[in-house]
Amino acid sequence: MNKQTSFSICGESLLAPMHICGFFDSREQQYEVIIPYIMEGLEANDKVINILE
Length: 53
What we know:
Blueprint lengths: L4 E5 L2 E5 L10 H17 L10
Antiparallel strand pairs: 1-2
């Protein structure tokens, strides 16, 4: 059984584990969403995986 933990993205509180997908109009908009999400994970000692183009 997976442990459910909460996290937030775009101001919404969600339960993990789950997959999320985002579509952005600009790199700046992407960073506005992704950076706080990554920072929250790092503060919770979560693992981070980066996949870059």
